[in-house]
Amino acid sequence: MVMNYMGSKARLMPFVDALVLPHVRPGDVFGDLFAGTGSVAAHVVARRPGVRIIANDAEAYSARLCTGLLCCPRSPELSARLAALQSAARGGLPGEVATRWAPPRHRFFTLDNAARIDGALAGLRGWVASGEVPVDSPEHAYLLGVLMAACGRCVNACGMYSAYLKQWWPRALAPLDLRPLPLVCAGAGAGAAAAGAPPSTVLHGDACAAARAHVYDVVYLDPPFTRRQYGRCYWFLNWLADAARGDLGDIRDIGEAGETAGGVPTAYARSPWAGARPMCKNALAALVTALQGQVRRAVFFAYSSDGTLGEADIAEGLSPLGAVTQFVLPRRHLFRPHRGVDAGRARAAEEWLFRVDCQRGGGARPVAAGPTRVACTWDDLVR
Ligand SMILES: C[S@@+](CC[C@H](N)C(=O)[O-])C[C@H]1O[C@@H](n2cnc3c(N)ncnc32)[C@H](O)[C@@H]1O
């Protein structure tokens, strides 16, 4: 797992292996339109060299992270640059992060780690200014991704940035650890190059725009299922993405827009998928309209039984695209912040994966008689 992330599918790869991969063939265009940490896109390209990935997310930090993972080729220069980033962090001096999000003002990071983050940022900005690492290059995205993942390991919070803890967690006291990320860039390995793997593309925007921008063989949809807004939970990663560009104007804008007493910015992009049920139903209808005629083979839609939409909402919403089958798996893992608060509900929770068998070119189709519901167990999947 690249990063602890709300709704990450990193631990659900047996679901992807058993139910999604059999529908993906070499040469296909595979869309991961709510890519998050890129775990599904990276898994598919690693298991199916020769597949072209289009990853998309509404959050800028996710688009940068996915660009690093999916588009940055492994090279000796990259390893040297990562070593230089580690050295810049070790020699970091207190700057913007230390002033704003470390004691005495706030407790997101220890002063020592905040200075290390400032040092890494100064390194990245310096390489942008000297032209050594262009700001929109995959290498810049990769180094930024390394820094984002490291911040997630030492932030003094429950894995997200929506509030910090009063006491220091032991892991927040450990020094910032800039570890390499697993690279799956098409063409990065000899095998992939020989297979003529096409490059991946990463888009930043609403899933509807990404749906209209390409024709896909298979599309994987993993929208938010709770009312938590990703822009609020991971605002610090968006701040880092701006700061690493060296764009001080953007950095000041966050402060001017206001912040809570706990140091969390009050302005962030809101997703309709993390809204109330009518809003989610509208978001699903808009996405299904955008996907009409854009998918040749199959659409997969991942959701959870403790989400805002019910299974009937989803099955009915997806049905204009084709015949719907629903796979159901008992929930085994829980993202840390949900433990305790949601423990009672979580015991009975299920993971859902809807598959729509599409026929490209068709307009609206009549609603099918109802989805087929297939119960799965973890043993079925790993067999
Ligand atoms: C459940 S997470 C995806 C997790 C991802 N599959 C992973 O394993 O890391 C949902 C993602 O949808 C993104 N998102 C929310 N609204 C969106 C929209 N309208 N269009 C595209 N992405 C959106 C969020 O930023 C978040 O990264």
Description:
There is one protein chain. With 383 residues, this protein is an alpha/beta fold. The protein has a domain at 1-70 and 196-226 and 275-383: Rossmann fold. It is 42% helix and 14% strand. It contains 17 helices and eight strands. It has helices spanning 13-20, 39-47, 60-71, 76-90, 96-101, 111-130, 138-154, 170-173, 190-194, 207-213, 230-233, 235-245, 248-257, 277-291, 311-318, 343-347, 378-382, and strands at residues 29-32, 52-57, 201-204, 216-221, 295-304, 322-330, 350-358, 372-375. It has an eight-stranded mixed β-sheet, sandwiched between helices. The structure holds S-adenosylmethionine. The site of S-adenosylmethionine has 23 residues, from helix 2 and strand 2.
List the helices and strands and how they pair.
Elements: H1 13-20, E1 29-32, H2 39-47, E2 52-57, H3 60-71, H4 76-90, H5 96-101, H6 111-130, H7 138-154, H8 170-173, H9 190-194, E3 201-204, H10 207-213, E4 216-221, H11 230-233, H12 235-245, H13 248-257, H14 277-291, E5 295-304, H15 311-318, E6 322-330, H16 343-347, E7 350-358, E8 372-375, H17 378-382
Parallel strand pairs: 1-2, 1-4, 2-3, 4-5, 6-8
Antiparallel strand pairs: 5-7, 6-7
Helix pairs in contact: 3-7, 4-6, 6-7, 6-12, 10-14, 12-13, 14-15
